[in-house]
Amino acid sequence: MTEDPVNIKKGFEAYLKAVFLKNLTSILVTGFIILAYYMYADWFVRENLKAASMRILPLTLILVILIIHLINKKNRYKLKSVLYQINYVALQFMMFGKILIHLHQDALAPSVTGTILIIFVISLDNKLNTRTTSFIYALPVILFTSVLFVFGKPSSKEFFTLVDIYPILILGFIINRIQYNLRFRLFKSNHLLKQEQEKTQSLYNETLKINKELDEKAREALRNKEEIQKKNEDLNKSNATKDRFLGIIAHDLKNPISVVWGISDALITHDELGEEERKSFLISINNSIKHTYKLLENLLSWARAQNKTIQYTPLKHNAFTIVKKELDILKAQADNKSIQISCNISSDLHLYADLQMVQTIIRNLITNAIKYTFINGQIEIKARQVTIENKDYTEVAIVDNGVGMTKEQIDNLFAIKKNSSIKGTNDEEGSGLGLLLCKEFIDIHEGILRVESTPNRGSCFKCLFPVMKV
């Protein structure tokens, strides 16, 4: 968009005004000193009172302008400007007056030279429009020429000395106009350049703003993407949990119920069964009901953990007391396989955990160890304080000398989508849910569950519970 010429002109005038006011003090002081020096020379050195008196008007104007400016430097621009223009005229009248005084004298040539010098100074200093400049140059020279030829009557030699003034005056005017126009063009170029710089800066700032908004939108999109991915992962996990849940209900609950159903039918329909057979059937029913109850108990606990509705209340508990209580419950199960269980835990060792969760963890891991340990096998339970990466833990380890596991089996132990459970050494059934529940509860404690195993040599499950600072 092209700038309005009127606005540029106004801007240029404002620029000239600022330059005028900025330099006015130094110009006036310099001019006053120079005029005072020449006035002193005319009066006391050359003893020419007429020549000295010609300097009174411009000297007075300079002093008046200087006083007004020093009183108020920023205001009264028009008054200062008018007086300054009048001083241009006064300076020329001063020099033309000196020429008339020195006419027919030897000092004529120096006066003409001085006049030419004043004309050039005015040409360089003047920053006014063409009309005003023409008036400043024309009025003094017209009056001087009229007086010169009417009253002065210069000789031929003096005429040729004086005539140098006129081409110099015209040249000074031309130089002044050229300088004025160059100054205006330079101002216009700088003004337009500044406008372009401002536009460029504005566009740059706008670009930065847009880039910032785009960057924020990109980050928001990335956050949304990550959130969607997390929700997808949660959904996939939820679906896998649901499938596993339904699979357990469809298979692991169905089988023992089917056994109870079949045996109960046999008891009802076969009256000829002996006491030993009836007792065997009742034992089978009892085992199936126990298995179903444990499975349901784990299933309900796992479901509550998945829904984040299970209560978590960590407190300080004696590790030996917890393990001993679970061993008492599981003693009969171990005795059925003649498995020896040793508990090597200090009576003063404590752990910080939720009581119900840690009982479930210990119970499931010991049950697992019994299931996969051979008849007449051994299980050791031990505990100690350990430090891992500058963090203190209470470690409870269940070690057996049973069937052990391969690395692939260990990797799949806690995979929800895969049922990694295999039959025990006495063909005990399992759902694999117990280990998932252990892992879930350990994670709630922000602990660690480690598994070490070698096929045909046994396994070691280590539960690490963080030590709470109290």
UniProtKB/TrEMBL annotation:
Histidine kinase domain mapped to chain residues: 248-469
Record field: transmembrane: 20-40, 52-71, 107-124, 136-153, 159-178
Coiled-coil annotated spans: 204-238
Annotated GO MF terms: phosphorelay sensor kinase activity
Keyword Kinase among record annotations: yes
Reactions mediated catalytically: ATP + protein L-histidine = ADP + protein N-phospho-L-histidine
The keyword Transmembrane appears for this protein: yes
EC number: 2.7.13.3
Signal peptide location: none
Keywords in alphabetical order: Coiled coil, Kinase, Membrane, Phosphoprotein, Transferase, Transmembrane, Transmembrane helix, Two-component regulatory system
Top-rank EC class of the record's enzyme: transferase
Name used for this protein in its record: histidine kinase
Record organism: Marinilabilia rubra
Classification of source organism: Bacteria, Pseudomonadati, Bacteroidota, Bacteroidia, Marinilabiliales
